């Protein structure tokens, strides 16, 4: 995103926040947890986006991962429901979704409620960051996707 787009982003965010405050009161349970989750999530998605960009041959190829992988994982990650509402077999399937841990850690920071222990959520997210960092470095060392 270009720096010129930031005023539009901030004004849109401020408008959404203002409208939300008309309907509800926002209480943050733990600002430190929320900020840490946001930073870790940004790092994780940046690394995943870098890997996606390395393997994309065209601009259209970049949209494959968000459309067919990220969107389903987000919807199945407990954004709109607690995984405790799922049958036990589907709870086990949901626990394999890394986005579930990001969502629950953020939910804890905002509401103080989580389906997953906070320490486990941070451990899983940090583990994915380490794995994706290692993959990115290995791809860079090999020169994959570098055009000369």
Give a structural overview.
The structure is a single chain. The chain is 71% helix and 0% strand. It starts with 5 loop residues before the first helix and ends in a 6-residue tail after the last helix. The protein has 7 helices and no strands. It has one domain.
Question: What would you call the shape?
Answer: globular
Query: What kind of oligomer do you see?
Result: single chain
Strand content: under 5%
Please estimate the helix content: over 70%
Q: What's the domain count?
A: 1
- The tally of strands reads 0
Order of helices and strands, N to C?
Answer: HHHHHHH
Structural class by SSE content: mainly alpha
The description of the largest β-sheet is: none
What is the gyration radius calculated from CA atoms? Answer: 18 Å
Any low-confidence stretches, pLDDT <50, length ≥5? none
Number of helices: 7
Q: Mean of residue pLDDT? A: 89
Head-to-tail CA distance between termini: 25 Å
């Amino acid at each position: 995103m270009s720096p010129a787009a930031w005023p539009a982003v901030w004004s849109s965010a401020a408008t959404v926040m203002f409208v939300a405050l008309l309907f509800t009161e926002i209480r943050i349970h733990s600002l430190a947890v929320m900020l840490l989750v946001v930073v870790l999530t940004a790092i994780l998605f940046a690394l995943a986006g870098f890997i996606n960009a390395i393997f994309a041959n065209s601009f259209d190829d970049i949209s494959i991962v968000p459309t067919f992988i990220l969107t389903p994982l987000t919807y199945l990650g407990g954004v709109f429901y607690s995984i405790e509402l799922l049958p036990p077999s589907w709870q086990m399937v949901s626990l394999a979704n890394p986005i579930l841990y990001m969502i629950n850690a953020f939910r804890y920071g905002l509401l103080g409620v989580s389906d997953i222990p906070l320490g486990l959520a941070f451990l899983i997210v940090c583990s994915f960051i380490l794995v994706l960092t290692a993959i990115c470095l290995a791809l860079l060392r090999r020169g994959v996707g570098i055009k000369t």
